[in-house]
What we know:
Low-confidence stretches of chain B: none
Helix content of chain B: 10-25%
Largest sheet of chain A: 6 strands, mixed
Order of helices and strands of chain A: EEHEEEHEEHEEEHE
Strand content of chain B: 25-35%
Structural class of chain A: alpha+beta
Strand order of the largest sheet of chain B: 41-42-43-44-40-34-45
Largest sheet of chain B: 7 strands, mixed
Radius of gyration of chain B: 38 Å
Number of strands of chain A: 11
Number of helices of chain B: 22
Mean pLDDT of chain B: 95
Oligomer: heterodimer
Mean pLDDT of chain A: 90
Low-confidence stretches of chain A: none
Number of helices of chain A: 4
Amino acid sequence: MPDTTGNYTGPPPVARSPITTVAAGRGDGALTLTDESSYGKLLVRAAATGPMATALGTRFGRTSRDAGDEALVVGSGPGEWLLLADVAELPKLTEWLEQQAEADPDLVSIVDATHGRAMMRLTGHAAADVLAKLCAVDLSDTFVPDGGAFRSSVTKLVTDVVRDDAGGASTGDRPSYLLHCERSSGQYLWEAVADAGLEYGLTTTAAPT
Amino acid sequence: MSRLARQSGEVIDRSQPLSFSWNGKPCTAYAGDTIASALAAAGVRVMSRSFKYHRPRGILTASFLDPGCVLQVDDEPNVRAGHRLVTGGIQVSSQNTWPSLKYDLKAINQLAGRFLSAGFYYKTFIKPQRLWPAYERVLQRFVNAGEISPGTSAEGYDKRYAHPDVLVAGGGPAGLAAAIAAAEDGAQVLLVEEEHQLGGHLRWGSQDDLDLLAELRDRVAQLDTIEVMTDATVLGRYDDNWISVVQRSVPGNGLGPKERLVKARAKALVVAAGLIERPYVFQGSDLPGVMLSTAVRRLVNLYAVRPGTRAVVLTANAEGDAVVGDLRRAGVDVVHVEDARRGGDVLRASGRGQVRQVDLANGKTVQCDLFVTATGWTAPTSLLNMAGDQPTYDPTAARFVPNVNALSDGVFATGGLCGDGTAEQLVEHGSATGRAAAREARAFTLAFADVPTRPDDARTLPQPGDPVDVPALEPARHREMFVSQTHGFVDFSEDVTTKDIKQAVAEGYDSVELAKRYTTATMGTVQGKLELMNTIAAHARATGKSIADTGTTTWRPPYAPVSLGALAGRIFEPVRHSPMQEWHDRHNGQPMVAGAWIRPDHYGDAQAEARNVRENVGVIDVTPIGKLDLRGPDVPKLLEQLYVNKWQRLDVGRVRYGVMCADDGVVLDDGVTGRLAEDHYLMSTTSSGAGGVWEWVENWLQTEHPEWRVHVTPVTTTYASMNVAGPKSRQLLERLVDGVDLSTDAFPYMHVRTGTVAGVPDCVLWRIGFTGELSYELHVPAGYGLHVWEQLFAHGKDLGIRPFGMEAQRVLRLEKGHFIVGQDTDGLTKAFTAGIDWAIKLDKPDFAGLPELRWQAAAGEYPMLVAVQTEEPSVVPTEASQLVDGNRIVGRITSSRMSPTLNRSVCLAQVESRLAEPGTRLTVLLPDGNRIPARVHTHHAHVDPEGERQRA
């Protein structure tokens, strides 16, 4: 957390989203794009089948909400996980991860990527239609059901795509996708998704403050 | 022509009249009218002039394929007027006619027709070659391709991907039935239809046909697993059923694109392309008023247009018989029906500007203003050909037919393409084919049941099901009717006649593929859909071969012309910005493109920015510097392998510079790596090399040394990075940094600390200096980057702080003699050439590039990077200027700038080793041809060679 004691006497730090320009929403809310970059993000590397993998409760390609409170664990690669949680939860989550790591004989690393990634959520009946304009992967329920996660090119950008319908619970059972990319291209990805969603009446929502 | 009373199958909406202009004159239409049908209803018969001879042309097919209806609409050339719907206010005009469509002076080409035969261009304009530019200017005036404005918007084109289980190409009765059956069998279906409505020939059929069509459409509408695309064409079929589709109009609320390219990966493809009615070749067959039977049936039944007043019909099939009924119902006087099944034939049609009479083969002449032919069908097998099929010619049916029982896996055919039958038989065949396709799609899906995105407890995917018996659908017998006894146009798009084909064969083009290219038959706007069979028949007649022996030309994608905009689709160009970009924008930061990064090149005066770093303090945004987080006990082994220098003994809190080489010893990248904790390191790379180095590192870890316990995570943009440089940099940071003693003794050069900057914890501070000044590189959690950056300026006003950009940094590093990988090195620069002999440890047991560097050291005589100063200090040689010895090139300037510190030019250069000694006189050949003297400087650094400033 920011520290305002010591030599520094200026204003307290304010974290900013990588998505700095959010055009006004124009749709009816049935299809929404929301900036969720402020979520805490932890990258965990460990053996794909070791104790840490067991503790995290999921594997490459799938998500779980079994680890920690309110954390979404994404199997983002073989032996690689991305944990998403409220940023205030990160210290507790990190401590829990470090405890699990001690029980794992293989090398475990935990890297805080909160500031290094941009993240947005696309929710609505037409969400897959929007993504079909940006990504070549088959998003049908057969191949990417709720809880499915993959890394692919979205708008020619390396992007983690996570289907997390539960995360979009306030909008019912419509598909909800988290798009997670490297921070510096967050604004670019946001604009590309927003533009692709225009014909479907996309509503854009800025990051909560 | 005129508008008829309401027809039971009409597609026009009489409640929605529309206005448009035709060659500048007002015209009316109804919603649902094509441009051609509206013009026909208005009595327009001549709609265009032909490609070469500028002969008058009108409606032939009343469809997308109509070669006589290629028009300019507003700013869009080559619009298929037989297909494009009228929208209010459009301006339609004929193309390449002067002074008017009616009186086109270029029609004089008809008089020179005997000189414009096959190969005319090749023979006439080959010599003398020097005149080609003049020829070209003249020929361009004859190009019949409409006009496009340079200001035409490129917006409105899009692309999307689709993954249907079954893609059905063609929405006629068989295609509709296939789509319905596949969907009812559980498949997701994409149904693609070129016309604006589903139904194919049922649309202009009997009441029974219309009733059947209504039922099929209703069933399609009730199945939400069928996505229907009308006004869309399947362009090509590639390996593994990768199928491209162009949507020429996209339904929606007006926010959608004009056109869209759909890239579909279908698990099964059903080709239900139907049949294309082909013209008959005879003298005068291109006259306005000579139409195919399907054109007449469309005009009458879909658009309620009376196509003439006095008609002659040449019929060889049931469609021809049906058109007689349509014409009579429309009030047209059918004065003669020539039945080809009983030997009837035509010799010629004639008339000025349009057909006026027909001479029959039996010697009879009939006056008319409409001559309708129904002489046979072409099976558009192209998608099947693209899938590997080689249709065979059936002389009893007078068309090529596909080998439906030997198609590639996942490819099916149905409908008229396969054979003929009643509407019910076509539906039955389509239904069975659709079910078979759905089952093959399920079998395909089963093979991917274990993709990682599916849960472990996912429900079992359905089994394919039992094989489906598809009933036979045989082609009906049909008289072979391609070319009559008289010469005529084989290709209406390119104005190619049977005489041209005959001449081509006489000149040795006895292969139809070669004759096609020589004459350009089938190479025009219709791309062979109408002309192919007649071209083959004419060629066969000229060679004396059979049609079967002559064979076909090759069907290649795209099946139909597609706009370049649709092919380009939505264009993605990822860009990257640092967290401080908005500050740069507000402070006159002049953007430069560096790979995908947008970086400030300068803020108005790069020289002043560089001077300020030497005198006060400056800050540069270096966020793009590559950063890799390295963790694990074997990181030192990794670093030893990657870098040319030694890394086993790097204490916590220390930073070391290193150079990486590829296996060939060529410099790959450079940067510093700091040890943050016992098993935790942070590596920096060049900005452009960040991605490549990550891959390089992972390659060593995953394939060469998987036993090493190291994890690598790219964290380039986890941190906002800024370099605070200048003699007052420490003074500035003392106002902002907590938890780190910044004194020289506590935090010396080439060390790393972590601490709090401007209230932001977990910042990494490196004391390094690319600029040669006392400097600190701050790596701040990126969300706080702008805050820290702004606080640097807020707290540094009295110290003279100002930002500096890439250009100032390049000046400062050049003054200091630091090379840039890729600027001062190239794809041949091995490490010793780069002048880093001090860092290369050939006594290490191994590192990437070691053998090559040993050989380089042993061989000697390699180019060397040296600092160079021109004898005339005000001259800055252009980068890449040659260094010459007489006429021999002995090196090149790799970097050059005017130094604001020394007030003279400074350079780095690669020179032959014999010229690398300090003081050696060199000659620089400038781009303007002048030669200037220069000397090798004593040290790479032009400024502060001892490094006192950066160690202060």
